[in-house]
Amino acid sequence: MAKKPSNQMLQRAQDVQAEIERLVAEAKDTHHGQGFSAPARNKLTGRLVEMQRMLEQVVREIDPVQLPSSFFDPTEPSLIGRFISIALVAQPRQRLEDLDGFYGAGVYAIYYVGDFAPYAPVTGTETPIYVGKADPEGNPKSPVDQGTKLFDRLKEHRKSIRKVNHIESRDFECRYLAVQSGYQAAAERHLIGLFKPLWNNETRVLFGIGKHGDSAETRTNNKSPWDTLHPGREWATNNPEAVSREEIIARVGRHFETATIFSTVDSVLEAFLNELRRTEDLAPPSVLDKPEPLEFE
């Protein structure tokens, strides 16, 4: 007599449990991962996290009562990050050159509107070339208590752009949003994930605008791709190039071949709504999402 499907699954579950018990015993023998390289540890952790998700899916599939199609938890940090991102996009764009001092810490986006050929795909669009956050000191509750962190950060970028070749500060616009302390990181993470801005470190193409020349180490390591494509910051002049200008321009072109370019605010808002419909995206980011070291560091 053939086994019932439930009996077969139970037997498989017992086999899997036995394997997991052996894996737990082996993990204990490593004494908290001693002897593992960082890539090997991350790879194994990723595999185990995926196994955990799959086991949770099995539990859901055999439950006769199904989960709702979505579950709204307004306290979930990643969801809060989405709403802050929407609020940022709702702000008016301002010329970077025209910014005057203002209070607040939070998030911002910088947009390119000039005629530098490699940036043509995003020129004048709603796809920022860079997004970032400005953290307050401590846990202040008001914009005044947060100080001028957002303005200082944008002013710093404007100063860097003014120093370099091929781009002009008058060809940049920005949006910024002061937010309650503690929420800016979730918003920045979401904005980077959605837009994959060309200048952000996480996109791994044209990073380096945020690099400083105020330490001996920075002044002696490799030149960032941003400083190679846009020479002019004095402290980076004599740094060796890790990648040639030609290769950087080629990488920029390949990035834009696959990147989603948002031409209107409506298309950005539609992307936000689509993400909210995908409940699996509301899980908090994994520790495995941390980027690997960048080439020039």
| H/I helix tally | 10
Strand coverage percent: 5-15%
Neighbour order of strands in the largest sheet: 1-4-2-3
What value does the average pLDDT take?
A: 88
Structural class: alpha+beta
Helix content bin: 40-55%
Overall shape: it is globular
Radius of gyration: 24 Å
Distance between the termini: 65 Å
The ordered string of helix (H) and strand (E) elements is HHHEEEHHEHHHHH
**Sheet of most strands:** 4 strands, antiparallel
Total number of strands = 4
Uncertain residue segments: 280-292
Description:
- This protein is of the alpha+beta class.
- The protein contains ten helices and four strands.
- Helix 3 (77-89) crosses helix 6.
- The radius of gyration is 24 Å and the shape is globular.
Which helices and strands occur, and which strands form pairs?
Elements: H1 5-29, H2 38-62, H3 77-89, E1 94-95, E2 106-112, E3 130-134, H4 143-146, H5 149-163, E4 172-178, H6 184-195, H7 216-220, H8 225-229, H9 245-258, H10 265-277
Antiparallel strand pairs: 1-4, 2-3, 2-4
Helix pairs in contact: 3-6, 3-10
